[in-house]
Amino acid sequence: MERQYFQPEYECADREVLRDIQSKRLQELVKRCYEKIPFYRKKLDEMGIKPEDIKSIDDISKLPFTYKDDLRDNYPFGLFAVDKDEIIRIHASSGTTGTPTVVGYTVHDLETWTNGTARALIAAGAKKDDFIHISYGYGLFTGGLGLHYGAERIGATAIPVSSGNTARQIQILQDFGSDILCCTPSYAAHIGEVCRDMGVDTSKLPLRAGIFGAEPWSEGMREQIERLLNIKAYDIYGLSEIAGPGVAYECCEQNGMHICEDYFYPEVIDPDTGEVLPDGEYGELVFTCIGKEALPLMRYRTRDISMLIREKCACGRTAVRMAKPRGRTDDMLIIRGVNVFPSQIEYVLTKLGMEPNYLIVVDRVNNLDTIEVQVEMSQSSFSDSVKEIEAKERMIASELHSALNISAKVKLVEHKSLARFEGKAKRVIDNRKI
Ligand code: DLL
Asked: Ligand 1 centre from 77 Cα, in Å?
């Protein structure tokens, strides 16, 4: 029988065993940061903390937070804990706003990151004889190479298609018989749509699963992708500062992502006060890279909003799960005082049977915030009756109001009139900031 876990000794470890590993690795991390990174030595000195003060994982709350700006202030390599000759790979965040953040990996770091994506692939049912079709971008972005190494690690066949050229993606899916597709969920939905438009019967393809992440996506979007591509769609989470994809991944239960806790220690905090929140409460995810050499960040503030789930998972893994992130603190829209994440709007739209092709336009008119949600009509729901369209717009607006308490103007737009995305989707235009 094919195995269900890649590293059961960690994925299914007893809590006590895992705690011992975490405690030992945290001590090593603090020592490494103190000795090798002047930025951390200064911070710890200012707080009066010495590496010897950290005796177990419970002492983690004594440590300072690290922010994205700390990486930017030390751009490009100022937070590296090893010499250049030990670095074997560099990646960087896209840096669409401000200075990019640069991350480096030693042999050991690449090994542990690869274990993470290998765990994710096995959890999604990948087997040695599978073709893993990788449509995440290759390059400084961690998506492509991250999944690529994982696929090779489990002995499967990596197909490094990278993103873009959707017709070619579909041709490869058909001709090579890809078994597992890896890309952003918005791109998966687009591939599914194009298959439908081209008359490709996805039930005849060998494709059986997809590993989708790098952006928030709702359960409604999952249903759409699963239907369009006739597969099981699994979530995968990660960020370049911590490693890349595979920090956490979904198992067959599709109910939260198991965190690779032996490498990336999670906490959820109140983003305003920094106080650690109990399991089951939503807040900002914070990770400490307890098993890393090149860029061993302490208590890194991800800005992602999620919660930790510690209940036993039926898959047998004991590693704590994180709920699907709702979005990032910096993506949260505040509309006339009401907080709303684009993913919550997506959830309502998809529950109403709309396809996940939408654009949120926020503005300020006479000092009042306005929000317009443009939603594409699907081919099948197309109507040229103005009355019918207006009635549908009112119905969607009323659902958004009752679910999220926002008064949005809804505008149904023509099928295929909104942009499609090959990487991370951009769903919001906020004219208030301009
Ligand atoms: O997006 C790494 C990645 C690649 C993850 C492929 C999954 C698959 P960054 O470009 O550094 O790295 O962006 C990290 O993307 O802080 C989240 O805000 C968001 N993100 C990543 N995965 C998910 C997910 C990669 N599954 C940022 N759900 C993170 C929601 C996600 N948001």
From this structure: 22
